[in-house]
Design goal:
Layout (H helix, E strand, L loop, with lengths): L2 H7 L1 H16 L12 H19 L2 H10 L5 H19 L1 H16 L4 H22 L8 H10 L3 H27 L8 H4 L9 H18 L5 H15 L9 H17 L3 H11 L3 H12 L1 H8 L6 H10 L11 H11 L4 H26 L1
Helix pairs in contact: 2-13, 3-8, 3-11, 3-12, 5-6, 5-7, 5-9, 6-7, 6-18, 7-9, 7-19, 8-16, 8-17, 9-19, 11-12, 15-16, 15-17, 16-17
Length: about 375
């Protein structure tokens, strides 16, 4: 892969690496560098990504979607299922995996409908799915990478984390339901189950699926600190190596390297007194709003990693970076997954999708910031 192509594909990783290298000129490498790296976050993140990649390769999520669609009989029900898969699925399989799985699934399902219905539903539904994945993922520590990191850093209980984000999740669900009703108001139609569900869908290896589900339970026990993270990491790595080694090739290692680079950059910034003092003072009392704004230009994962090194108000960062996933197309990098799908499958609809996505995100963000203002 050429350097230019790599930079285009891995922009965030490249930026993080450059920042880490530049910071090393101000704080030369020494033994303290080892203390920068949060091994717990990296190990659990790798474990969860491997398990999700394995289940996805076995068609587990695709089968789940087809099972739900078998009970669908109208465009409104269809829209609820497709958006609900992303909203509720992202709570457990991350927003990235939800969109990687269910957006292509949506293209297949909608291709079986009439041209007029497909044209009316495709862009709004994919837009809703993207927002739903980013909003549903904020409820749990495993919903997205920054939650996993901030949850580990905060020392919160799982119940405390869920209760913190529950009001925003419930409001988000109501907003999505209202939007689905609005979209389907002019495209209400009865559907045949046979139109939607293909009987030729391939079945995965049930034993491997069961193994990954057990490993997922092990990962959850590690997340809630019942099991040491090293046990989950070793169990997932060994099982994948011996049972399903191809899955290890599909893990997003660039995300893990991005975390490492940001850990180094943040650790070095913390050892530069002038900058550290200024950023701490600037953040004080503004954690949520700064996190939202920072997410718009860096995406919410880097924003969480950067800001967490300069404030003890981790709960405020959890709220800010989750709400900050709304807004621009790069506020949550998961949003780019859907945009690329639209650009590939419906290139003439890119501008329409981008306009609807931006407007919808800003409306959702404004409403949820209003909820935060009332709750604070």
């Amino acid at each position: 892969m050429k350097l230019k192509q790599f930079i285009q594909q891995e922009t965030v990783l490249t930026a993080a690496a450059v920042l880490a290298v530049v910071s090393a000129f101000f704080v030369p490498p020494d033994a303290q560098y080892l203390g920068y790296i949060d091994l717990r976050t990296l190990a659990i993140l790798f474990s969860l990504m491997t398990v999700m990649a394995g289940l996805r390769r076995q068609g587990f999520f695709d089968g789940l979607g087809r099972a739900l669609l078998s009970r669908t009989h109208s465009t409104f029900q269809l829209t609820l299922v497709l958006v609900g898969l992303c909203f509720f699925g992202s709570m457990f399989i991350t927003n990235d995996v939800s969109l990687l799985t269910f957006v292509p699934f949506t293209f297949v399902v909608l291709s079986r409908l009439g041209a007029d219905v497909r044209r009316a539903l495709l862009i709004p539904v994919v837009c809703m799915q993207t927002i739903a994945a980013n909003l549903g993922s904020m409820l749990t520590p495993i919903g997205n990478p920054q939650n996993l990191y901030l949850y580990g850093k905060s020392g919160m209980s799982i119940e405390g984390f869920v209760l913190l984000m529950l009001p925003y999740t419930l409001v988000s669900l109501l907003l999505l339901l209202a939007w689905a009703a609005l979209v389907c108001r002019k495209t209400s139609a009865a559907l045949s189950v046979d139109e939607l569900v293909s009987s030729s869908a391939s079945q995965g290896d049930q034993k491997i699926i069961l193994l990954y589900l057990v490993l997922f339970a092990v990962c959850l026990l590690s997340v809630i600190r019942v099991l040491p993270y090293g046990i989950a990491f070793a169990a997932v790595l060994v099982c994948a190596l011996f049972v399903d080694p191809r899955t290890l090739r599909t893990v997003d290692y660039s995300l893990l390297l991005t975390f490492v680079a940001f850990f180094i950059f943040i650790g070095n910034l913390g050892r530069i007194p002038a900058f550290s003092g200024w950023l701490q003072e600037f953040l004080t009392g503004r954690e949520v709003l700064v996190a939202v704004l920072a997410s718009q230009v860096t995406s919410n994962v880097p924003a969480a990693l950067l800001l967490s090194g300069f404030t003890a108000e981790t709960q405020a960062l959890i709220i800010g970076t989750n709400l900050g996933g709304l807004g621009t197309l790069i506020a949550s990098m998961a949003s780019l997954i859907s945009y690329r799908q639209i650009a590939r499958e419906l290139p003439q609809g890119k501008k329409q999708y981008f306009g609807l996505f931006t407007l919808s995100n800003l409306i959702f963000l404004a409403i949820l910031l209003g909820v935060w203002f009332l709750l604070r």
